[in-house]
């Protein structure tokens, strides 16, 4: 698992933890009487140490009162904003990565008048100027690509594919 995928899982765990707090839930509340999900499994998923597998997905959806896996994996615009922002910052810090080179080229082409600014500043400007477009594009891509049975690791890979394609084509 690479840093982009791990970043998605960390953000997902933070988001699930927030939903649990808002709904007054604990790790003991996941599952039904017939099939409870182990509290350590819930903790490991929330801390991005374990995959949210297909077999546990229904328990999460049911407990968090969500209709679809899309609602769990990409709950709202704010989640997407935070995810995209943290991903761009992560890419900017990994100066030797292929994605950094793609992002740096994109920024220098889009902001030729800002040659005095460093890459971090350009990333911030790019995010502020494009966050709604990126969020809409991400949500559209995921609605088309996400299946109802995808695990969190599969979604993280799909997210990585989206960010790479988006940066290459914009």
TrEMBL record:
**UniProt-listed InterPro entries:** Cro/C1-type_HTH
Q: Record's CDD domains?
A: HTH_XRE
**What name does this protein carry?**
Helix-turn-helix transcriptional regulator
